Amino acid sequence: MKLKTRLALYFSLVVAIMAGATLFFMRQTTESVFRSFIFAGDTNKAKIYATILGEYYREHKDWEGLQAFLSEIPQLAFFGLDERIHGERGGEPAVPSPSSTVSALLSDRIAVADSNGIIVGDTSGSLLRTVHPARHLTHGVPIVVNREQIGTVLVGSMVDSSLSGVNELFLASITTALAWAIVVSAGIALLLGLILSAQVTRPIVSLTSAVRKVAAGDLSIAVKTAGETSGKDEIAELAISFNAMARELKRLEDAKKQIIADSAHELRTPVTLIRGTIEAMIDGIYPRDIPTLESVREETVRLSHLIDMLRELEIIESGKLALKLESIDCMEMLRKAAALFAPAAMEKNIALTVEPSSSPPSIKADYLRVDEVIYNLVSNAIKYTPPGGTIRLSAKSDENRAVTHICVDDSGPGIPVDERGRIFERFYRIDKSRATDRGGRGLGLAIAGEIAKAHGGNISVEDSDLGGASFVLTLKPA
Ligand code: ADP
Question: Is 140 in the pocket of ligand 1 (CB under 6 A)?
Fold first, then answer.
């Protein structure tokens, strides 16, 4: 079942339960309040009747003839009312006898029980001479004559719990009004619920279709994120995250394609070279001797080095590289690198120095990986700096000690400004033939950049005061 339909069904169910419960409780409460109201009215009337009936008993000394007296009460009440309006000597009453309407208005059900609980008077006649249980009589009003209870009077709801026609009608009309109010508000609630569920599910529907497209390989998809500007809700955030995921997948996919294309291109040259040499040896063009085989072996070594670098780059880029972070003394590390490259520098008559630092800067990093970056930078510096030049290794913390910079400066040709962004790309070489002659494949700086990134740092290049390039590796301090 679709989410939209399920939500609509849930809404309907909740609204139906709420409406039913509200109707039931409101009806119950209204009826009970209404009954108490009627009972209160009947009690007041019963008090008045108790006085009248007390007078009657005082006069007659017993309840004989009470039934006839009770049937006259409406008329008595009417003339009493008339006297109130016209005064005792107001002459002829305006209406000679009570009309049927008035008597109907005043026709309360009155029942009178004597001191033994036997009904001695009942306007409806049905209860006459029956014994009324004492617990029923407690609702009634006692008729007291000379401080003695000579009976009990019960009026309307005290005798008969069923509501009179008018009262029943009143209650029914309240129930109908209530039911209508509930049906209308339930209808509005349902409509709003349906609109809301359509609104809630709309972005989910577009997300689902986008996810399907991604699953089918279309990574250029992006879902609308209306929430980006107007208050972010969970679904808007999901859409934003989805778009970020799709972008990242696309980037990785493009990168993968690029790597395959670049790698194929880069591997082709040495493989062609090896194949050509071997074929030439078979055809007898090249001598089948040790020096020729040695050149083939050198090419295979270079090839396997290239494959190793590609593998390393793949591991770092895919985030599979597990870093073993430790505190590293940068000066110590630079001194070791200088010692390692001293013979190569001496061979090219290059002055390779380590600049002393007053405060020994340290970093929190994977020793072997950072050592690899420094090895690459120094080996590049020696490769590209002409004989008689200078290479300087240094490390420093920034002013507030938030980061540490490790610098490799040289007096070589430097990096032209427009090439600076690109030299960290895979297989990028400024002067391809010259760099390849020097054994370069354009992977060293790409690996250095990825290692820096994996550490949460970065690597950049600028002009050096020595006249060449200044490579700066920035990492977090220990
Ligand atoms: P390679 O193996 O070709 O040196 P790198 O990624 O280490 O690959 O360097 C990329 C390119 O950046 C090099 O081909 C070279 O043109 C340039 N480069 C790197 N270091 C220096 C430097 N110290 N001085 C001048 N050019 C450099």
Answer: no
352 has which bridge partners? 391
Walk along the chain (478 residues) in steps of 10 and give the mean pLDDT of each run. 79 84 87 86 87 85 82 65 50 47 61 85 81 77 86 83 74 85 84 83 85 87 65 79 89 83 85 92 92 91 89 84 92 95 96 89 93 95 95 91 94 94 87 62 90 94 96 94
Contact 67, 128 (CB under 8 A): yes
Instruction: Give the tens place of pLDDT for each residue, 230-249.
Output: 557 788 888 888 888 988 88
Maximum separation of any 2 CA atoms in the chain, in Å: 158
CA 21–ligand 1 middle distance (angstroms): 80
Domain with CATH 3.30.565.10 in the chain: 325-475
Does the 234-317 domain belong in CATH 1.10.287.130? yes
Q: Is the CB of 156 under 6 A from ligand 1?
A: no
Ligand 1 centroid to Cα of residue 468, in Å, is 12
Percentage of the chain beyond pLDDT 90 is 31
Cα–Cα distance, 338 to 331 (Å, whole number): 10
- The Å distance, Cα 297 to ligand 1 centre, comes to 25
CA distance linking residue 225 with residue 243, whole number of Å:
9
Q: What is the pLDDT of residue 93?
A: 46
- What is the CATH number that goes with domain 325-475? 3.30.565.10
CB of 70 closer than 6 angstroms to any ligand 1 atom = no
Q: CATH 1.10.287.130 region(s) of the chain? A: 234-317
Give the pTM: 0.55
Can you tell me the distance from the alpha carbon of 239 to that of 466, in angstroms, rounded to the nearest whole number?
Answer: 51
